[in-house]
């Protein structure tokens, strides 16, 4: 019988059977034994034998436990997961499976289809870029992304051949010549068509006495989770199911799922050392990576005459010279000014935005109130209301109330009083110092048999960012992360709690039920610069003297990003044991840009790193679809974003692959830039890069041919030159428009021009200070082409004096 006919008959039978009961449900049951993806099966025949054996074991298992006719097995999962899906109308089936041996977890299937790494769709990659490159499987083909990070979990389906959801090894051979270094938890078979290189660097960490071989693994294996997360965001396989705590959050995909990955482990749970990182960068460039992603940075501005002459910055300069695009996290020190920790113009520094995906949770009280909060947690069972009790009212009397309120110790509770109740816990200062965690709250609730928990804010802390709020939880829970909701809950509870004359709670009449907090809401709103994302202006040195360089460079999604994780994680105890994690930071934004850069590199293999960065910058979005400006989170407010918040703007991949014009830069131009940095002499440049300053040089740092114009100290007037190259397919005529920064008059020559394919043209800007600002003001230069190309160049100017005007 044909497979499609079997499927039609099966669907027909289920549809008929479903009429007998409104209680029919589908359950996904995962078993303990390893699926194919976790096995070292060397050929197709062995894989088929193993899959057939697992399928047979599923049938035997079900037949031995469940009555015939009480279920239908829909699928056997043998590839990415070892388990099965069953359809049943019998309530007893779930109970039997929950108590059966070898069952690892049970997940009730959902009818909603969601995207997990929502960002490919959000950025327009799935419809605007992947189809032009041959589809998701081939998007990034022939490009190798190197990641300097904490290593990788090679067994994760985001990186295995089996996780490709199609024929494996479609990748084109590249110039890459790296190797895989086997070691603990990292066998020689760990590398694949996707993961083509893996090495680790720890000599400095070992010498410093911080490396622990038991914890940190002397191999490329990811003992932290961070490296797996960034790698899968950049180039993880497409369509990987994201299951955390028995719940399917959707399907994950990297930005360039057809690209290959090479990892260079130089960071560990404790951090890392620059020499290890430099060694890793060196090896990566020698191996032949095309893009280098570093979700890392220094703790502060390096000492010395210039931050640009720091060892790592120079190492990355030579990586650029070798044709490798370097992408680095801007830092998480925002919203403070000049908190940027990625300095040099040859580095693409990435800011982070909040996406339109939200996870909200709520609790309904017995009096009809609904209080909004957060929490990636399941709902309370059955849609019924449960009695509510404060932790301090159901604990042993000989324990300090403050220790109980945070719900960190299960021994503190009286089990007869907590079972079946929702427990009110308090987010105290212990959570801020990480002496207490939300994961431990959930663990406590599970141990004491409570129905769930409600975490309220301590009035002394106020409405702060909750640490650990994005951890997937196994028990019902809601975090009331504002004082208004917390106060409303306490008012309701206190008015419905009967107390003795001594104040002891003797009657609990407050009831509530917690809703499901795991369903994502997509608002469609424009990206917002995250508060933590480091801000410009860029600095020349540790004295924080500002530089003629725009930083950050570009912005990408960085908040609440689902991606691969390492179950052995020592880096985040909140999510230890999970295969996926929901994280935020410029570390998460950086691999988005690395993956998008790989897509551009595939489309334009001869483009230089500067050309690729230029393409992303000049096509970035600075407004929402409505035309309203993109906003930035500041301290306790939102305000229109500036180039010091998001660089050139929010990346737009579908436009970046066809930018019209590019601003290209060669190594010699970066040397000239260094020669014009204030406080840097010729000898310093020679010692740093091996060549001296040319006799004929540019006068200002602002003359470097970047796709932005930054003047940190305008006195009177200045001439700035740019050179554009037509990378379009046709001759195009451009008109140049300027929106002047406040206090500056700008004249552009020429104001319009026609440019042939592959031809270049110089553009001159003459800036005249009209008013002393003693602050940065912002504008832009826009090239509008008659072939629909729009090339936008941000301008930032600090007018120190109008002398000479």
From TrEMBL:
<keyword id="KW-0645">Protease</keyword>
<dbReference type="GO" id="GO:0004252">
    <property type="term" value="F:serine-type endopeptidase activity"/>
</dbReference>
<keyword id="KW-0720">Serine protease</keyword>
<feature type="active site" description="Charge relay system">
    <location>
        <position position="226"/>
    </location>
</feature>
<dbReference type="InterPro" id="IPR000209">
    <property type="entry name" value="Peptidase_S8/S53_dom"/>
</dbReference>
<keyword id="KW-0325">Glycoprotein</keyword>
<dbReference type="InterPro" id="IPR023828">
    <property type="entry name" value="Peptidase_S8_Ser-AS"/>
</dbReference>
<keyword id="KW-0378">Hydrolase</keyword>
<feature type="active site" description="Charge relay system">
    <location>
        <position position="587"/>
    </location>
</feature>
<dbReference type="GO" id="GO:0006508">
    <property type="term" value="P:proteolysis"/>
</dbReference>
<comment type="similarity">
    <text>Belongs to the peptidase S8 family.</text>
</comment>
<dbReference type="InterPro" id="IPR034197">
    <property type="entry name" value="Peptidases_S8_3"/>
</dbReference>
<dbReference type="InterPro" id="IPR036852">
    <property type="entry name" value="Peptidase_S8/S53_dom_sf"/>
</dbReference>
<dbReference type="Pfam" id="PF17766">
    <property type="entry name" value="fn3_6"/>
</dbReference>
<feature type="domain" description="Subtilisin-like protease fibronectin type-III">
    <location>
        <begin position="703"/>
        <end position="797"/>
    </location>
</feature>
<feature type="signal peptide">
    <location>
        <begin position="1"/>
        <end position="24"/>
    </location>
</feature>
<dbReference type="InterPro" id="IPR015500">
    <property type="entry name" value="Peptidase_S8_subtilisin-rel"/>
</dbReference>
<dbReference type="InterPro" id="IPR045051">
    <property type="entry name" value="SBT"/>
</dbReference>
<dbReference type="Pfam" id="PF00082">
    <property type="entry name" value="Peptidase_S8"/>
</dbReference>
<protein>
    <recommendedName>
        <fullName>Subtilisin-like protease SBT2.5</fullName>
    </recommendedName>
</protein>
<dbReference type="GO" id="GO:0005576">
    <property type="term" value="C:extracellular region"/>
</dbReference>
<feature type="active site" description="Charge relay system">
    <location>
        <position position="149"/>
    </location>
</feature>
<dbReference type="InterPro" id="IPR041469">
    <property type="entry name" value="Subtilisin-like_FN3"/>
</dbReference>
<feature type="domain" description="Peptidase S8/S53">
    <location>
        <begin position="140"/>
        <end position="649"/>
    </location>
</feature>
<keyword id="KW-0732">Signal</keyword>
<dbReference type="InterPro" id="IPR023827">
    <property type="entry name" value="Peptidase_S8_Asp-AS"/>
</dbReference>
